[in-house]
Amino acid sequence: MNEYQYDYKTVQGFVLSAIFWGVIGLVAGLLISAQMWSADLNFGEYLSFGRLRTFHTNVLAYGLGIGAEFGLFYYITMRLTKKPFVLPKLARLHLWLFNIGVGAAGLSLLIGMNTSLEYAEFEWPFDVAIVILWVMFAINILGNIFTRKEKHLYVSLWYIIATVITVAILYIVNNLAIPATLTKSYHLFAGVNSANVEWWYGHNAVGFLFTTPILAMFYYFLPKSTGLPLFSHRLSIISFWSLIFAYLWTGAHHLVYTPLPDWIQTLAIAFTLFLIAPSWGSVVNGYFTVDKDWSKMSTNYLTKFFIVGITFYGLQTIQGPSQGIRVISSLIHYTDWVPGHVHMGTMGWVTMVICASIYYALPAMYKTTIFSEKIANTHFWLVLVGQVMFSITMWITGIQQGAMWKMTAADGTLQYTFMEGLVRNYPYWQMRTASGLIFVVGMLFFIYNVLMTIQKGKKNLAKLQEA
Amino acid sequence: MIQEEYDNIEAFQREDTEHVLPLGWLILFIGLIVFGIYYIYAYTPAFTGWSQEQQLEEVMKTVK
C-alpha cells in the first residue's frame, strides 16, 4: 500500500467528520434562531436556548471548522513539504479521538457543564483532552515542516505554523482554572483581569481559528484550482508577519467602555484599526492574482468561491475594526448587529473557502473530477443569498436596537422600554431563520456533491490500480 | 501502485510581480501605523488627560 494513500484516508476522514458535525451544528443553529421568536421550541432544559447556543457555536467551531482545518492542514502540509506524515498512525488516532472528543464535549454543554466564558465553555477535563489532541496534531505538522524535502516555505506553511503555535498558547492561558470538582472549575483570573484574558483569547480564537487557517487554505488552493500563480510573494509575507504581530494586542476592543483601564482599550483599538492593512494585503493579493485572467470567474467554477470568500474577508476586516472604535461600539455592541458580523465571517468567508478547498482536494486525492459543477454552482448561489440576507437583516435590527436603547426624552429619561425594542426584533429574527434555511439547503447540495465525488473517485482509483 | 505527483512550488508564485508591493496598499499600511501612534497618544489618560469618565461627564452635561 502506498503511504500517500494511507495519509489521504486520514484527510478524507477529517473532511467527512467536519461535514457530520457541520450538519449537527447547522441544525442546532436553525433551531435556536427559531427559539428566538417562538419560545415553544425550547424542549426541556437539555434543548433550551441557553444550552443549545453554546452547543451551536462550539460544535461548528470545533467540529466543522477545526475538523476541516485538521484535514486540510494535513493535506496542504504533506503537499508543500513533499513528504508523507512523520507518524501516520498518530494522525489516524488523532482523527478517532477528535470525533469522540467533539461528541463528548458537545454533550457536556447540553447537560449544563459550562465555565461561562464565551468560546471557552468546555470544563477542565475537556480542556486537558483538547490540549493533548492539539499536541498530537502539532507533532505531525511541525515534524513534517522541520524535516521537509522542499526548502522553500510557501506562505501557507507560515500561516499553518502560526495557527499551531498561537492556538496552543491562547487555549492554555485562558483555560487556566482551579478545578472544584470533575465538572466545575473557576477561572484563575478574577474580575476585570478575567474579562481581559477571556477577550484576548476570544478575539484571537477568531484570528487563529477563522483567519490564519483559512488564509493558509486560500493561498494554497487559489493558485492550485485556478492555475494562476500568486501575485506577490513579498506582499503575502509582509501581510503575514504584520497580521501575526498586531492580532494579539486587539482583544480589549471587546471591552470598550468597561472598567478595563482606558489605556488598554486605546492600545487595542489602535492595533485593531491597523489590522485593516495586513488583512487587505491578502485581499489585494487575491484580486491581483485573478486579475491576470478574470475570465476564470466564469470558466473555472472554483474561482468565484475564492474571490467571493476573500471579498467577505475584506468586508469583515473593515467592519470589525470599525466596530472597535468607541463611538460605533457604543451604538452596536450588545445588539443583534454582532451576530450579523460574526456570521458573515463564518458563513461567507470560512465556510465558503473550506467548501471550495474540499471541492478541489477530494477529486485531486482520487485523481478524478468533481461529481457535478452544476450542483456546486447551485450550492454557491444558495449559500451566498442565505448569508447576505442573514447579515443584512441583523445589521438593520442591530442599528434599530442600538438607537432605541440610546434614545432619551426631553427630560433625560429613556424613550423606549427594553420590551419595546425586543418586540421590533421579531420580524428580523424570523427573516434570519428563513435565510439560515436557504444557507442550510445550499450546504445540503454541497454534502451530496462531496459524497458522490467520493463514490466516483473510488471507482476511478480502482480502475487506475488495475491498469 | 499509483505514483504521487509533487506540487511544483515554482508554479505557485508569479516571477514578474514576486516582489511588488502595490503603492495604494503601502500608503494604507504606513498611514495606519502613523494614525495608530496619534490615536494612542490622543486617547491615553497619561498623555492628554482624556478618560472615559470625563467623556461621560461631558455627555451628561448636554442632556440635562
Explain what this protein looks like in three dimensions.
- The complex is a heterodimer of chains A (467) and B (64).
- Chain A has 467 residues and is an all-alpha fold.
- Chain A has a domain at 1-188: Cytochrome C Oxidase, Chain A, CATH 1.20.210.
- Chain A contains 17 helices and two strands.
- Chain A has a two-stranded antiparallel sheet.
- In chain A, helix 7 runs parallel beside helix 10 (276-291).
- The two termini of chain A are 16 Å apart.
- The relative contact order of chain A is 0.09.
- The model of chain A has no long low-confidence stretch (mean pLDDT 95).
- By secondary structure, chain B is mainly alpha-helical.
- Chain B has a domain at 22-62.
- Chain B contains three helices and no strands.
- The chains are: A mainly alpha (467), B mainly alpha (64).
- The A-B interface holds A 2, 4-5, 79-80, 82, 150, 152, 154, 223-224, 229-235, 238, 242, 257, 262-263, 265-267, 269-271, 273-274, 276-278, 280-281, 284, 288-289, 292, 326, 367, 408, 412, 461, 464-465 and B 1-2, 4, 6-7, 9, 11-14, 17-22, 25, 28-29, 32-33, 35-37, 39-40, 43-46, 50-52, 63-64.
* Structural Rg of chain B: 26 Å
> How many β-strands of chain A, per DSSP?
2
Instruction: Give the count of helical stretches of chain A.
Output: 17
Radius of gyration of chain A: 22 Å
CATH architecture of one domain in chain A: Up-down Bundle
Taking all residues together, what is the mean pLDDT of chain A? Answer: 95
Uncertain segments of chain B: none
Which H/E pattern describes the elements of chain A? HHHHHEEHHHHHHHHHHHH
Structural class of chain B: mainly alpha
In the CATH hierarchy, the third-tier topology of one domain in chain A is known as: Cytochrome C Oxidase, Chain A
Largest interface, C-beta within 8 A: A-B, 47 and 35 residues
CATH superfamily of one domain in chain A: Cytochrome c oxidase-like, subunit I domain
So how many helices of chain B? 3
The first-level CATH class name of one domain in chain A: Mainly Alpha
- Helical content of chain B (DSSP H or I, runs of 4+): 40-55%
Which runs of chain A of at least 5 residues are low in confidence (pLDDT < 50)?
none
Characterize the quaternary organization of these chains.
heterodimer
Mean pLDDT of chain B: 90
